[in-house]
Please model this.
Amino acid sequence: MHIGVFVCHCGSNISGTVDCPQTAKAAGEFPDVVYSTDEMYTCSEPGQESIIRAIKEHNLDGVVVASCSPRMHEATFRRTVERAGLNPYMFEMANIREHVSWVGRDKALNTRKAIDLIGMAVAKLRNGTPLFSERFNVTRKLMVIGGGVAGIQAALDAADSGIEVVLVERETTIGGKMAKLDKTFPTIDCSSCVLGPKMVEVAQHPKITLYAASEVDNVSGYVGNFTVQVRKRAVYVDWDACTGCGLCTEKCPSRKTPDPFNELIATTTAINIPFPQAIPKKATINPDYCLQLTKGKCGVCAKVCPVGCIDFEQQDKIEEVQVGAIVVATGYDLFDYSVYKQYGAGKLPDVITSLQYERLLNASGPTGGHVLRPSDGAEPKHVVFIQCVGSRDKSKGRAYCSSFCCMYTAKQAILTKSHLPDSQSYVFYMDIRSPGKGYDEFTRRTQELYGAQYIRGRVSSIHQHGSSLVVRGADTLAGMQVEIKADLVVLAVGIEPSRNSQKLAATLHISADTDGFFMEGHPKLKPVETNTAGVFLAGCCQGPRDIPTSVSMGSAAAAKAMVLFSNEQLESDPQVATVNATRCVGCYKCVKTCPFGAILESEDRWKNPKAEVLPTICKGCGICSVTCPHGAIQLNHFTDNQLLAEVNAICPLPTI
Amino acid sequence: MPPSNDLKDGGELRIIGFLCNWCSYSGADAAGVARLEQPTDLRIIRTPCTGRIDPLFILRALINGADGVLVSGCHPGDCHYVEGNFHARRRLETLKRILPISGIDPERFKYTWVSASESGRWQETVREFTAKIHALGPAPRMTDVVSRSKDLSLEGLLLQDENGGA
Ligand SMILES: Cc1cc2nc3c(=O)[nH]c(=O)nc-3n(C[C@H](O)[C@H](O)[C@H](O)COP(=O)(O)OP(=O)(O)OC[C@H]3O[C@@H](n4cnc5c(N)ncnc54)[C@H](O)[C@@H]3O)c2cc1C
Ligand code: SF4
Ligand code: SF4
Model:
């Protein structure tokens, strides 16, 4: 073989703590290495050109680049060597940045480690073989999971480009949190005036199929060809027939049904439509509160429904959908703040969450937009806002900032003043975080124009005193204790990944970070991708972010799906298992171990039992390789010989 | 002979890591991005999944003279390939029991789980394991072991087989 080695300085990222010229020189002594050099930026245009030039000049049939992590640039360099006519799999990387220069301080030791890693890469390459992709067809259909503003944006963008979209929403309406908000920062424009038309568009778009009250049960397949099982929950109403007239909700006698759309500060009827602008605008029965379903006597809705669409016998239905890509946009939930005993642990009626307050402010909310406190329906005069409840608090396992609470608290203080001109708002904060266009001006306006008093410090206790609440806390800027008599306290509760996110991550084979938010493919360069090809992220499921950023991410995720669908066919990853038929004895151990059912019990021409791998289904884990007692099934690019060659490169077989 | 095979003169020992691509290799990358300083002894081999790691690779490394072998993958339940790490755990537990039979101190081998976001945990893992191997000191010369394993007819397993390339 003729191998070329390229050692990257990465500016000073690598060369700062690795002697790159010496490394390149040492690499030249490894077997089959005919050319080695060091480059300032190997991934740059001139860097890549010099690889191509060297391949041609030195007739190279294998290339090793020692630079950053292969998770960063393996794809880049594979394309480079391919441009020079090499098979892209005759390429290896030595990770001398993330695993060497950035974690070791001693230059001599780092240099030796870098040389070792190159030696391992060379050894692996010498045992490599060219690999070839297969082409396969793509199902040009996108699934979006979660119909908040991020998911809606992704669905509309993709559908507008002509792609079929299936939108799966767990609740009985799309809209997510934004549908509950009154007005939005920093423009104070009405949330439903912005979101409403988009929701209607989803309902009317010929390319969008909406599955509300539905969840994803199972996903199989691979990029371009996923098979998704969607569970349509029983809603006890035939939605195809329901016109959303609402007669049933007027007559339903079960009026004490908790109303999650109103964040449980109001009740609704057992058969209900969450709000007038709901999409789809269809009635749903809550089986836990329906008298017919719990006690077997009532059936009023069935009697009044003019189209006869009530169906008390309805069951969950599983539907199978074929899609080529999936956008996950499952958003967030509020943290359960009852762990904070100092804030009343959820037991004081006039201590409410920020989202409950949005419902009180909202003209279509339970109070018709009049700010009336829950305990006695009185108008509050003194309103205290407490920020960072379950954010930036390590002791509660919530070290991260929920990002938008500073801004919506300022908004809610402004709205309080416009609803109740005689009121006074107080905001306890840790820091005011308002980066964003017009955001800092907004929080200043809250204080300067709307007179909200900002107090930097934490609240240590809230207790009931007669009909008001006494809020005690520290003002760390003034260096003193403060006590405020409040009529209403609003907690800016931090956010966490939407419930059951962990299960969804497992279903989709994507990862989550330590806080449970889904992990992006790369923190900078792949913000909407995941580690699973064909699965993209949008909105708060990846981390806390406000509406403008959620919308941008929705568009970005749709664009990524569109790029995927712009190909008639996709190329399969050839790093899959292959069976050496002469070694295979047909024990089918591998068939039983493969988690993806990628191996068939097949036979050869002479009817001898042999294993056969379906390359499009194989995910390339290599579990089968270790199972096979005969080494007959090998994972391409990670064969026994390649991995053992790496071992031998560091620890050569002792001579006996 | 390449210049770098004799590690001992820098006070370093030979530690080989087998890491799955999706969790621990990414976690090690994340530790690099966060500049979490670690001892330099470890050399990492990337595999798609811990389920790809044949215990014989580890045995080979130790018999060839590695002073320590560290395996790390996704936490149980988080495997990118659903169940690869369960297979790995079973195989590696068996390996642990075989090591003493082969005359190898089982303390020289460790497997653990580090996710892609646990850069701090990776740093700790490398520091602790390296310190432990340094406390054990360089592995005894393995030539004895090789001849003994010949008696146990393990030889076939230990020598590189020629069928790998498929
Ligand atoms: C009190 C408050 C006020 C706010 N005010 C503002 C503001 O003024 N301006 C601003 O820019 N931002 C504001 N925000 C932030 C805003 O709510 C978010 O940025 C935005 O809602 C994020 O949208 P999303 O689509 O990512 O998530 P979500 O709105 O949470 O939507 C997620 C959707 O996915 C669905 N879902 C979840 N899990 C599943 C599943 N497994 N299967 C199917 N569907 C699922 C949910 O039912 C939901 O419909 C505020 C937040 C709060 C708490
Ligand atoms: S385990 Fe090996 S020998 Fe058995 S069927 Fe699979 S490939 Fe063939
Ligand atoms: S590598 Fe083997 S076990 Fe893994 S998916 Fe492919 S055939 Fe199945």
Observations:
- The pocket of iron/sulfur cluster (ligand 3) is lined by residues A 576-577, 594, 596, 598-599, 613, 618-624, 635 (CB under 6 Å).
- Residues 334-496 of chain A form a domain with the FAD/NAD(P)-binding domain fold (CATH 3.50.50.60).
